[in-house]
């Protein structure tokens, strides 16, 4: 069965937002546990997520807990914002799809191809 373009867009948005949330969540956990940038993976995660956090840089303080553990509130806030934006995008796409379906049904009724409505000549 072929998927509708809007369904593919919704899946794409969900996939991208899921990746963003995964990387930001990983960054939050690594910072919280005091992961060192000496490890290439940790350095890669921090470098990868830096552009995602740039709009939120300096928005909140990032307190350091004893032992080098960092609570990065900007990353937590970014995680919530990206999730909300993804939700809004999916909601808009769903609304557009629903609207297009209604238009299609209306056209079917106007042309007499709708269900439950026969041609006048058949009566």
Structure description:
It is a single chain. The chain is mostly helical and 123 residues long. It has one domain (5-111). 66% of the residues lie in helices and 3% in strands. It has three helices and two strands, in the order H-H-E-E-H. Strands 1-2 form a two-stranded antiparallel ribbon. Helix 1 (5-32) crosses helix 2 (40-53) and helix 1 (5-32) runs antiparallel to helix 3 (73-111). The radius of gyration is 24 Å and the shape is elongated. The two termini are 36 Å apart. The mean pLDDT is 84.
What's a concise summary of this model?
This protein has 3 helices and 2 strands; from the N terminus they run ααββα. It has 123 residues and is mostly helical.
Strand content: under 5%
From the spread of the alpha carbons, the general shape counts as elongated
Radius of gyration: 24 Å
- Give average pLDDT, whole number: 84
Percent helix: 55-70%
Taken together, the total number of domains comes to 1
Terminal CA distance:
36 Å
Would you tell me the structural class of the helices and strands? mainly alpha
Number of strand elements = 2
Q: Low-confidence parts, pLDDT < 50 over ≥5 residues?
A: none
Q: Name the helix and strand elements from N-terminus to C-terminus, one letter apiece.
A: HHEEH
- Biggest sheet descriptor: 2 strands, antiparallel
Strand order of the largest sheet: 1-2
- Total helix count? 3
